Amino acid sequence: MANSNRKSDEETTFAAVPKAVVSRLSLYLRELQQLLSEGKETVRSGELGSRLGFTDAQVRKDLTYFGQFGYPGIGYRTDELVQAIRQILGTDIEWRVVIVGIGNLGRALLGYKGFASQGFQIVAAVDADPKKAGLKVEGVEVHPIEQLGKIVKRCRARLGMVAVPAAAAQNVVDQLVEAGVEGIVNFAPMTINLPEHVSHVGVDLASELEQITFAVAKRWHAQQQS
Amino acid sequence: MANSNRKSDEETTFAAVPKAVVSRLSLYLRELQQLLSEGKETVRSGELGSRLGFTDAQVRKDLTYFGQFGYPGIGYRTDELVQAIRQILGTDIEWRVVIVGIGNLGRALLGYKGFASQGFQIVAAVDADPKKAGLKVEGVEVHPIEQLGKIVKRCRARLGMVAVPAAAAQNVVDQLVEAGVEGIVNFAPMTINLPEHVSHVGVDLASELEQITFAVAKRWHAQQQS
DNA sequence: ACATGTGAAAAAATTCACAGCA
DNA sequence: TGCTGTGAATTTTTTCACATGT
Description:
- 2 copies of one chain form a homodimer.
- Chain A is α/β, with parallel strands linked by helices and 226 residues long.
- The first copy, chain A, has 2 domains: 19-88, Arc Repressor Mutant, subunit A, CATH 1.10.10.10; 95-207, NAD(P)-binding Rossmann-like Domain (Rossmann fold, 3-Layer(aba) Sandwich), CATH 3.40.50.
- Chain A has helices at residues 19-37, 45-52, 56-64, 78-89, 104-111, 148-155, 166-179, 205-225, and strands at residues 42-43, 70-71, 75-77, 95-100, 120-127, 136-137, 140-144, 159-162, 183-186, 199-202.
- In chain A, the strands form 2 sheets. Chain A has a 7-stranded mixed sheet, with helices on both faces.
- In chain A, helix 1 crosses helix 2.
- The longest helix of chain A has 21 residues, at 205-225.
- The first copy, chain A, starts with 18 loop residues before the first helix and ends with a helix.
- The interface between A and B is large, with 69 and 69 residues.
- The first copy, chain A, binds a DNA duplex (22 and 22 nucleotides) through helix 3 and strand 2.
């Protein structure tokens, strides 16, 4: 292998990558950073996988969508793989993020320590309540909603996090799109409409709990049967 | 069809249901509740699907894992389908939930209005900081961490939400399991280990953003190619 | 006529199993 | 020897297309 990056010339299609692979990549990254902090210099696909509940083959297959990162007989160099995955996910550079809606959830997002360490910098906050304008929350100034577009552009925010009531979400999203953000995380429990060229992820807290109640109900059904 | 529930005698295996189906079910439910509030008495699979970005066939196939809920030539009765999905997800009954970690995120969860309407009742809060013990946040009393097990049992909480720092998460989870909770939502950016019989979902906020940066990077790659 | 429910076909994702390399 | 990378086989999930019911 060469000096630093192995197989850096990627001609990966990138389009054919399953969504599930990308979410596992995030988990691999988190686990590798943990491994790194534990002082492990290398890790085998089986180790990494079993920590997360995946098979060794799954880990290897996922990674080879993007290149060859391992050393036969050895495994993966932890630090190299961390760097490689950050590059794949695009978080080897800083992303500027604007938060809309400074209620309980917005405040929690503003104060969340996990963003900065992963390459996300919250550059501005916006709220519809005029009483909140001018406030500084977690060191970030809150602006009135009317200035959303201007703020996004001035701060060169590329991503938006929406933490407003469901009824206000679509309107906020439209303004974010208009202002030119490239991606949106929507915490409002509401389906939003977006143009093709803007990515989004919806996080619905009640829905997360429902995944669990279903699993519990499923176990109950299985039990009844026997 | 009969008086109220169509095909109520389910012999569904329940085990063979793909995970993705369950998360779509949550989205269907949310959309149906929206539809209901708009006064729509019936809805066709195509309508429901297109609002969420799915095909009509997908909607029908998902639902038939659990029974027959539609009326050929008509569609689905909105209110009936809402009730049916709640029953499938298990949220036709109330679930008592305990929150561990009353930092910014825990407070946001405590104040989140979307839980109650979906059948989740937050019955207790716990925090490691003794200064927080005795406080009432959003009408819920905060207890010291030492009493976690006792509180879970006294309140008969069946689910736990973990919003503590990563380093503390495994320990909290172990205590929740010991206390007998049936499911856990983990907001700490850390892999947790659980026995088979306890369900869990991990919500990693940075990971959600990474899904988007990847999508943006992907689009950039596609653009370069042309 | 029109929309559901559903086997069958197709597509996608995962797992297997082994060649190749350190 | 031990582990990666990867085609091939398998399994899972989605889509198709039409018989069936109202």
